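Supplementary Text 2. Reproducibility record for the structural model of the 784-residue chain.

All settings were left at their defaults, and a single model was retained for analysis rather than an ensemble. We include the record here because the model underlies the residue-level annotations in Supplementary Table 4.
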Amino acid sequence: MKKSRLKILKVIIICMVVIMNLSSILVYADEKDSITINVKYGIEGKYKNNYELPVNVEIENKGENINGQVEVRVQTNVYDTYDAFVCDVNIDSNEKKTVTIPINLYENSSKISVVLKSGNNIIKEKTIIVGSGRIDEYSLFSGILTDDINGINLRTLSFNVDGRRFGGDVKSVNVGLNIDMISESYKSISALDMIIINNYDLSKFTDKHYKNLMEWVSNGGILVIGTGENSAKTIKENNLGISYNGTKDLNGYTLANLEIKDATVALEKDGENLIYELDNEKGHIYVAAFDLANQNISNEDYIEYFWKEHIGKNFVNKVDRLYGYSNSNYSPYEITNLLNNIPIDKEINIGSIVGIFVCYCLITGILVYFIMKKLGKRELLWGIIPIISILFSIMLFAIGTNTRIKDVALNQVNFILNDGSKESTVKGYIGVALKNRGNLIVKEPDNVLLKILNEENYYRNNSQSEFKKLGSKTVYKESNSYYEFENLSSLKMKKFTVSNHEQIVPSLDTNLKYESNVLNGNIKNTLGNDIEKLLVVSSNSVWDIGKIKAGEEKNIDIKPTSSLGLSEYSNKLMDDYYNSYRNNKSKGDKEKYKDIIRIQNAISSLAQIESNGLGTTYIIAITNMPVDYGFNFDNRSVSKYDTTVMTQKVNIDFTDKDGILNYPMGYFKPVVLSSSAYIYADDYYNEINGQGDVTFKYEVGSDLDILNITIGNLNKQYQSSGNQKIFIYNNESEKYETIDVKAKGNDLTNPKAYIKDGIVKVQVSLEEDGYTQIPQISVKGRAK
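Retained model, structure tokens:
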């Protein structure tokens, strides 16, 4: 009887457990069914690689209130590993809400998973494929913010640029811009090359809209604003520093009388200011005094020509920076080396450690033993030997103090462009690592932009990869973000770029003169830190000044270390390192070569990152000057290291004893004016590759009375291929003339015929696929 009751009780308990589990499953299923998730990507479904991809997640909740997170999971180049991009979301019952999350999509990844979570519980999940909508890197991606898109000619803007990379004409791809996209984050619109605002009520903008818009501009965006008859609607008080004092009607269109802080008049006609230009770090702002949709003026040829010239130039510079890794998710090889190798001032002396160990063995194993034996006190060895061991441990600890890393290692590589203004722009690369395995959180400091770098620079087919293991987590909190790494290995560097930081940096005092291939004068180090390597660069000539201590003034009188630019100088550094130190048994001067690889990496990185902003003559100073971006790792101690590369434009006097200005071969930088589709000019290596024609212009300026122009090559031992021909444009005959570029250069007869408005034009033709040098010019003249 008791057994049968026991059996009945067991059956009842089992049934109750099953019912409870079934109930929870039904509730969970009901919760899932009560939520609908729709996912869209890009801006109107369009996007560009190498920029953040906005993922728009629309959530409709017909169930209970939800306080949770939306997480977008993205495939990485590591198999079965994903990166997560997260933001908090609160959705009331019977509410529909849309959140936009910017993500980094790897080159070969296409699958993303959107997860709605509450704590660790997944409420709803949806996986999509990012397929159509990708825009070519060489198309102008434009967002238009307007109440009336009809008639805006900039929608159809196209222009011809460097054909080898751009494939001929650059065409516009346009999307309508939603004001909500700008309010989320500048990262949501980072893929846009240009934003056009015309006939739009900017009173809808908040401070957050303006902040995000200006961050987008400062990172290379082109902003075009139309005013004219809609000025009262478009121009608001304190709107981007723009104000207007009435309008006037002219020939079927209206011009606004504008005042714009720090702007210059970029286009004027018949005494009327038509377009203003304002530079903002890497970006540009253009404000038209007319409505961009008014066909009576926007259709004019000179207006269209202006947009093609200016926007075309800005766009090409932006793409060049992208190729130089300035905006890319990838970093140059040399930057990776700098971040992975911490610049410790003092290395551990292995000889000292071996000597201490030998002394320890002799003292504890022989000397102490025999002394105690002779004294008949061998029983005291059990106490004496531990004491001696502790003393030697303290000595070893003291020796390693300078090389010891604290809880967090913060390795910074900083590039400072000192243009003489009060505050200099700093572009940073940082590596963050933990001393011991653990979890790491890297928070984005206030007023700077932090972006993680992709470290997997290889291709992997991830079609079968699953979302199993978390790689990194990016969490968006209001206007800032932070990155989480779980169970990070000891000293595993996580790498980031830092932008939008400014720092006050004093300028170096210089007084330099060039004559007969010799640079002389003096330079004073006013930085407050020792300069490990100081270079003076004038186009292709590089003078190595060496090391200058803080406050030191150095007199110089030297010939160029390299006459073929920074690329050859960088190669010479490494050749000297391997020939005179690494492969030399005597090992040479260890102190001289201690930081040579770090210096070489810094110089090579600079050439890629700042190739468009260095100018013709400048100084490169490599130091350990500290830069404070404002990183905070909570209560963890930090070992901070800085490698800082400062560049500063410098004036060099090229006047000889007779008062004639002698600009050496290569001083005037060749700029590509036009090119065929399959030919490319690389100014870093001073080389042309491919087949076809490429035309260069050399901006000599109009302030010289020209006495002589010589055209030649920098490297006299260079062997060209591809059956090259070189032509120079004669402005009197209005034709290109063939010219023979000799080893010593070719002096032009009647040089004034080949220069107009301060510009010399040279064309190189490769009739077959091959390579050759970019021609260079030297100029003599008197100042007008």
